[in-house]
Structure formats: C-alpha cells, structure tokens
Amino acid sequence: MKFEAVTIKDIARALGISTSTVSRALRDSHEISPETKQLVLDCAEKLNYRPNPIALSLKERRSRSIGVVVCEIANNFFSQVINGIESIAYDKGYNVIISQSRESYDREVIDLQYLASRSVDGLLISLSTETNDLSHLKALHAKGFPIVLFDRITDEINTHKVIVDNFKGGYEATEHLIKNGHKRIAVLTNSEFLSITHERVAGYKEALIANGQKVNENYIQHCFYGGMMFEEIEDAVNKLFTQRNKPDAIFATSDKLTTGCLKTLKRRGLKVPDDVSVVGFSNSDLAELIDPPLTVVRQPAFEMGKDATELLLQLIESKRPIKEFEKRILTPELQIRESSIKKMVIAD
Amino acid sequence: MKFEAVTIKDIARALGISTSTVSRALRDSHEISPETKQLVLDCAEKLNYRPNPIALSLKERRSRSIGVVVCEIANNFFSQVINGIESIAYDKGYNVIISQSRESYDREVIDLQYLASRSVDGLLISLSTETNDLSHLKALHAKGFPIVLFDRITDEINTHKVIVDNFKGGYEATEHLIKNGHKRIAVLTNSEFLSITHERVAGYKEALIANGQKVNENYIQHCFYGGMMFEEIEDAVNKLFTQRNKPDAIFATSDKLTTGCLKTLKRRGLKVPDDVSVVGFSNSDLAELIDPPLTVVRQPAFEMGKDATELLLQLIESKRPIKEFEKRILTPELQIRESSIKKMVIAD
DNA sequence: TTGTAAGCGTTATCAT
DNA sequence: ATGATAACGCTTACAA
Fold first, then answer.
1. Which uninterrupted H or E stretch holds B66?
2. Strand locations in B167-241, DSSP E?
3. pLDDT attached to residue B118
4. In sequence order, what are the beta bridge partners of B311?
5. Order of strands, edge to edge, in the sheet holding A122-125?
6. Which candidate in A45, A103, A119, A143 is best for mutational testing of the B interface (most B CBs within 10 A)?
7. A232-246, B65-79, B311-325: lowest mean pLDDT where?
8. A166-298+334-340 belongs to which homologous superfamily?
9. Nucleotide nearest to B9 (CA to C1')
10. Pick from B55, B97, B284: which is nearest to A96 by CB?
11. DSSP state of B97
12. Alpha carbon A302 to chain centroid distance?
C-alpha cells in the first residue's frame, strides 16, 4: 500500500503528449504553446504533481542539501549555530542534514564519508575534540568538495572559515577578572587539539602577562571531552582546589564547562563569587538568572551559522574556483554582570 | 573543476568487465567468481569508490532519510529531542533532515510539502503554534506517508504519537504549589491550539479542584507564540500582576515560558519566591543553578526523540499496514528544589 | 511547437 | 559466471 506518487509520465499519459513537453511546460520554457502550457499546469495541479527531487538530484548531480557535522546538537551554542544555518539554507532552498560526531573522531570520519558521498553538495563542520588527524577532511577538500569550517577549525585546510575572536574573548574575560583584583585566575578549558582551546587560552595568558601576572600551568585544566561526561569537569575543578595555592577565580572556556564548573563548585560548597569568581563562555539565556547572574562571553552563534552557510553556498554555486578563502572573525560580547565577580582588594 | 566521483562504470572500464558484474561483486552476490569479486573489491578500494546514494534512492524509491519539523531548534527541549532522533537514525543508517516552522503555519506547510515530496521516507513532527487546520498533514497521511507526531500532537490524525504525560506534569507542579500553601496560582501557557496547552492546563485545573480551590480564568495567561518574542511573555506576566488579586505563584508550562517568566519577574523587581513562587517546565541544565534553584517539570526529551524515531522507522520499514497505532506516553519528572517555593501559612 | 532518445548511477531481469 | 538491457523520474540536445 505504498503511495504511488504522480510523475511527469502520468501527466503526459493523461494529456496524450510526451514527457518532454510536460517537462518544458512545467519549467515554463518559452518554446511551448500557451495552450499546452496551461493544459499541463492544470493537469499537474489536479493530480497534485510534485517533482521528484531525487531524480532531479541524479540528473543535476547536486542534491540541494548541505551537511552539518557538530559534536553535539543539544548544546546552546551549537543549536543556535544550527538555527542560523537553517535560516539561510531555507531561504536558498537547501535542506540541512545534521549529524553529530559526539566528540568521536571515528564518528566524524564516518559522518563525513557518508554525507560527502554525494548526498550533500557541501559541508559545514566544527571538528570533534578527538580529531587530530585531518586526512579525511583533506582528501575531501582536495577532491574539490566544498567545505566550510566553523568554530573549531584547523589551519591545515585552506578553505573558508568562520570563528569568533576567541583570543579577544579570552583576553577580555581574564582582564575583567584581573581588573577586579584577582591574582590567581585559573582556566578550565577543552582539549589541546582544538583551535578554540589555543585561542582562548592564548587570550587568557596574554591578559595575565599584559597585567604583570605570571602564567601558572597548574591553573590550566584541560577537559579532553569538553565535559561530555560531567565527571571530567568535576575532576578538573577538584584538581584546582586541591593544590596549595587555590585559585580565586575561574575562566571557563565553553558553555558546557561553564555550567559544569558552577555545578561542581556548588557541590563542593564553594560560593560564587565569595569563594571564587567565575566568568565563562556561555550562550545560555539563563546566565542572567543564575545565582549570582553570571558574567559571560557570549558568541554570536546565530550569525556564525548564517555566515558559514553563506560562504558554503557561495562555494557550491560558484562556477569558477575561489581565488582566496575568507576567514571571517566575529566578535564575542563580554556581558558583564558585576555581582558574579568578587571585588578583591588591589594591593600593590 | 568539479570533482568527478568514481562510479561503478569507472571500475568496469578499468577492469574491462561489465557494470552488472561490478555491481554484483560489490553487493557480494554469490553468483560471481571469487577472483572477479576480489578484483573488483580491490579496484573499488583503489579508486576509493563510494556508491551514489542518490542513484540508489531513485532506484529503490527510498532515500533513507527522515524529516523532522519542529518550531525551533535552539530550544533545550527540542534540541534534546533531536539528539534522540539522531541517535536512533544514525544506528539505523538514516539521515536526519531538520527544518523549523518557527511557529508559522505557512512555513510548516511548506516544510512538509518540501520534505514529503519524496526526499524523505517519513516525517517526525511537532506542530506549530499557529497550526489549526490539519489538512496538509491529513492529505499526506491519507496517501500512506509515514508520519509520527510528538509533543504537540493532534487527535485528528491516526498514527503513532509520542508525548509525555502532560496532565500529570501540570497536576504535580500545581499540587506541589498547593501543598506549600499557595492559594492564588496562575498559569502561564501556550496557544490554545496546542495539545500540550490543554493537557498541562487540564492538570493544573484538576489539581486546583481536587484541593478545593477554584479555577480563576484571570489566572490563565496564554502566549500565542509561546514566547518567540519576549514581549509576549512580559505582557502576560504584567497582566497577572495588574489585577487586584495578584497571584502568589506561577506555573509556566514550557521551557521558554519559564525562562521568560523569571526574566520578567526580575525586571519587575519581584523576588522569587518571596514575592511569588515559580514552577515551570524546563529542560535546562541551569535550573538547579538559578537563583533560587528552580523546581521544574523535566521532560524525557531524549527518550521522546528515540521513541518517535523507532516508531517512524517501524512504519517506514513495515511491509504490511500497521493494525493499530501506538500512543506512547512518557513520564515527566517533577524535580523539587524546595528553596524555589515559598512555604505559605496554610490557614483553614 | 512537439516528440525521440540519451543519460544521470545503480540494480534486476533476462540472456548467454 | 558474466553481459546486455531496461528501469527509477527527470531534463535536454537533437530531430521532425
């Protein structure tokens, strides 16, 4: 009882004309008589004809769909990016096919391979935390497959990229803590494989140095899986607080790390900001309702999704090869909510 | 410079054999000599052959992809549902194509039509707030197109459905407020078109009645667009607090309404729970970190996505028509965090 | 203006 | 065991 869809053939048969005529009439070709055109259009309407996009894809060698690979959908930042992606894709008549790497290199490779085997016209990808070897992406890119990297990027592949100014985000967050008198600022961050880690930590370090503070490697805690399992964050935070010189502030470099950090501190009975101040990357609505309202670095996620998609469609639809690849750098916003940061006495 | 993909033809040519032989070898047909098979396999490997899923789709009249229509991706609840959907789809080798109605009936119709025109094998949908007329879905369903409804469903279509026990969620949330002595409990809810609205409000009303309280229609505020624009929530909350008999508690029936409600109260300078207690549906991680930690009704969103997808794939892959459609009802969890609710003196 | 036929990549049927 | 051919639904030279 599968439903048989109406094809161009059915219309042709019904009208006693050829399929090519029908096709032309539907595509509004000028080389067709107005009468026939109307006839076909009416018939198509009556039979509720819908062109088969798959047949079209086969013919045109394009699917009008783009693939998206992110580590996780259920994440404020990425779901907002996807929102941006979908908004542009919808406008341009493209489908969005989503798949999650779940921070696994193997899954990323599989996802990529699957999507790229011509079921999508191009790819938007934010690398998984495990991804160190980029041969899968390189191979694809070398074949001329349109790819745009966003958020977690790599310099090993020369294509369009969209990121926020992670250095700036890290710098400003740290600087804000310093300005409030903090002297022992720790950073809770992701895998060292990730570009965002380097950039945000670099900003952190630079802010310390620019303000005459020393970088203390013990204050830098990496969560390899970015907190996919909560215990990872818990361990990292615990490590920070079991050293002699406990930090007086923490800068968390991602949505998940920020939430996890707050949760862990609460469990340890540490008050924010009385015992320790916290600033983190966060795209959650709730940051301002948290106890106390949190100072956060907010990323223009929606815009990132839109930009990345625009660039990708540009790649897909451009006839001639792109001369130079664009690296678009958006600006993150430090949303200051004073109560979340303890004013320390600045003695010097 | 479009990359030319390797086809079965290329292998055939390279080996000087026919495409049918290649096809058979790749599909591991038994009616083929081991030598040829090995030859083909090696060659395919060498040329890095990938079957073209589009050609396959055309042939098999199935795309191995499913469509998902939700009002919004950047929403804790829905992104968690999508996570569940993706997890099952991935296991079963299906692609997930997402599109957002953005609470617009027109977009929902377009999305549906587009997805259903044979580019997906089935559809998972949670209705938009504007959706009152169901003819688009009915037509599709009547044609035998596999559809599973989740969360915001309708009884007008006889197919598999997955929801949480919204009545129970509404009942327990309200009951919890009553148990703490609240006498003037308002409800902030969605459009009257939505099933979730009816069910949750019904639970609310029933809890009131069961506890000897009267239902006050002035305490029931609907946000037609579910808070897509924040002002809507602000207006609704403001209405609650400009009547003579101001509520002493609010039950918010969705993620977005809960957040928006808290935000509005804060803007109005109303303290939770000193001035008004709040309980809401919420799937945010941050509920427990809010000030004060919020008592919420949490929905098993991931499970909902998984269940809906399983049912859909069952529909898609079943040869014979389903005898009876299943309505799966998951259980929401009332996560009580006492500090968010003011203990009122129970006088009677 | 309209029809015929080839082709997109694959598999299934029928020969050989 | 292998090859030729048709078919999936559509577009587009090329003919008529």
1. strand B65-70
2. 185-189, 220-222
3. 77
4. none
5. A327-330, A161-164, A147-150, A122-125, A65-70, A95-100, B95-100, B65-70, B122-125, B147-150, B161-164, B327-330
6. A119
7. B311-325
8. Response regulator (3.40.50.2300)
9. C9
10. B97
11. E
12. 9
Amino acid letter, A94: Y
In chain A, residues 11 through 30 whose Cβ sits under 7 angstroms from any atom of nucleic acid strand C = 16-21, 24
A289 touches chain B (CB under 8 A): yes
Task: Enter the CATH code of domain B63-164+301-331.
Answer: 3.40.50.2300
Residue A346: predicted pLDDT? 64
Provide the CATH topology of domain A8-51: 434 Repressor (Amino-terminal Domain) (1.10.260)
d(CA B248, CA B271): 11
Compute CA distances B288 → A35, A40, A76, whole Å.
68, 61, 17
Q: Which residue has the tokens 């007086």?
A: A248
Helix B135-142 to helix B105-116 angle, to the nearest 10 degrees?
20
CA distance A43 to A6: 11
Q: Residue A228 gets which letter from DSSP?
A: S
Residue nearest to nucleotide C7 (CA to C1'): A59
pLDDT top residue among B297 and B34 = B297
| Nucleotides of chain C touched by protein CB (<7 A) | 1-5, 7-13
d(CA A50, CA B61): 15
Distances A224 to A131, A135, A253, B21 between C-alpha atoms, Å: 11, 21, 13, 48
Contact (CB<8Å) A263/B2: no
Q: Do domains A63-164+301-331 and A166-298+334-340 have the same CATH topology?
A: yes
**Would you kindly state where each structural domain of chain A is located, as residue ranges?**
8-51, 63-164+301-331, 166-298+334-340
Is the Cβ pair A96, B95 closer than 8 Å?
Answer: no
- C-alpha to C-alpha distances, B139 to A103, A199, B39, B128, B156, nearest whole angstrom: 41, 52, 50, 17, 12
Return the percentage of chain B with pLDDT > 90, whole number. 87
